[in-house]
Design goal:
Elements (H helix, E strand, L loop, with lengths): L7 H10 L5 H13 L3 E10 L4 E15 L2 E13 L3 E8 L15 E3 L2 H8 L3 H11 L12 E9 L9 H24 L4 E12 L2 E7 L2 E7 L1 E10 L2 E11 L3 H27 L6 H6 L1 H11 L1 H8 L9 E5 L4 E5 L7 H5 L2 H15 L5 E3 L6
Parallel strand pairs: 3-7, 4-8, 7-11, 13-14
Antiparallel strand pairs: 1-2, 2-3, 4-6, 5-7, 8-9, 10-11, 12-13
Helix pairs in contact: 3-6, 8-11
Length: 376
């Protein structure tokens, strides 16, 4: 086979040509992330279950740290866009952060750890997360939107001619759908106790301006970053997502805030987990979260003891826990009329087994006794 001779000058056109694509920006952003110790996945494919086709997100980056018995992931889902001739215009107006029809503090987290899931499901937890992070020094990454963005437009940088919103819309929808896919795929993929916190970034190699509508005036302001809260319907359910537009020239400096966000995420979720167990003995809702695990812990450990005392095996599937305000003690109820509660309460070996299970499952080291819960 004859060799093809190509001069370096002829090959140079390919290096120049690739500059017209967004791959150069994508690579630059990936290298910045890696320099800051983020794990980077490029061109990750996901299934768009709404349109039933495979799509691609430019970059997924994450940091992970171990705390207690679970992993904390801070994840960045990133769309990279480039325009040499157009400016991205964000059409906006004054914002009302008290608008009851919007959620300016959406928190997109996934966890397979029951205590964390419970804590995040409580009312007000999302806004508290933002407020706490701000107090801890995370500023721009989670700052409040300064305006209400209601539309977008790519506009010719020379003469201001409106083009369309396709590139901007594609960036937003790809981020939202990729996040949805990641959160829906994690239950099958992740078995180790974990918590994932997601952030959506649209990084643009182009000028960005705000066009703010003030009565009859439209004021243009050049910017390098802004937060946009998107209201959308996905899987027949209304949801909100926070997307941050960032000019590529400031991304490296902006990443410092996300580095800090991960460090503070570790501390915040560590404390959130600890708070789950505070006074848990008095909260039946939290008790129920780990009740099956508590029953399973006792099932085999009590078998020999029960058979020796009562000639029967414990029916652990009915074990329940209640707080007794009168005795200021936790009641352990076996729901078995054949058991002599006095024998149970005077058997140190059984009390030691149950006490150990309470400490292991509920971190409870206080008083408890065996009895029957009488609600009336």
């Amino acid at each position: 086979m004859a060799e093809i001779e190509v001069t370096s000058k002829e090959l140079k056109k390919f290096s120049v040509g690739i500059l017209k694509t967004g791959f150069v920006l994508e690579n630059r952003i990936a290298q910045i992330l890696k320099k800051n110790s983020w794990n980077v996945i490029s061109n990750k494919y996901y299934e768009d279950d709404f349109e039933e086709e495979v799509r691609e997100i430019d970059l997924v980056a994450y940091k992970v740290s171990r705390i207690q018995d679970f992993d904390v992931y801070t994840s960045l889902i990133i769309s990279c866009k480039q325009s040499k001739t157009n400016t991205w215009a964000l059409l906006c107006r004054d914002i009302n952060l008290k608008d009851p029809n919007s959620d300016f503090w959406p928190l997109h987290c996934w966890s397979n750890k029951p205590s964390i899931k419970f804590q995040l499901s409580t009312q007000g937890s999302s806004k508290k997360y933002y407020e706490d992070m701000c107090k801890l020094g995370v500023k721009e990454a989670l700052s409040d939107p300064s305006v209400d963005i209601f539309a977008f437009q790519e506009m010719d940088s020379k003469d201001g001619t409106p083009k369309n919103d396709k590139a901007i819309y594609d960036s937003i929808t790809s981020l939202i759908k990729a996040q949805s896919y990641e959160m829906s795929a994690l239950p099958e993929r992740k078995k180790v106790p974990s918590i994932y916190q997601f952030n959506l970034l649209s990084i643009i190699d182009a000028d960005i301006i705000k066009l703010k509508f003030n009565d009859d005036e439209i004021d243009p302001t050049p910017i390098t970053s802004e937060h946009f809260v998107s209201r959308y319907i996905l899987k027949k359910k209304q949801s909100f997502s926070r997307i941050r537009f960032i000019n590529s020239t400031i991304f490296e400096n902006s990443l410092n805030d996300y580095n800090k966000l991960h460090l503070e995420n570790v501390k915040w979720f560590d404390k959130l987990c600890d708070n789950f167990y505070t006074n848990i003995e008095k909260d039946n809702d939290r008790i129920k979260i780990y009740l099956e695990e508590f029953r399973s812990e006792l099932r085999s450990r009590l078998a020999f003891k029960f058979y020796r005392l009562f000639k029967k095996l414990p029916d652990s599937k009915n074990i329940d826990l209640y707080w007794s305000p009168d005795k200021k003690s936790l009641l352990v109820d076996f729901f078995d009329a054949d058991l002599d509660e006095d024998i149970l309460n005077n058997d140190d070996s059984i009390k030691k087994i149950v006490g150990s299970a309470l400490q292991k499952i509920y971190r409870y080291n206080g008083q408890f006794y065996f009895g029957t819960n009488v609600p009336f």
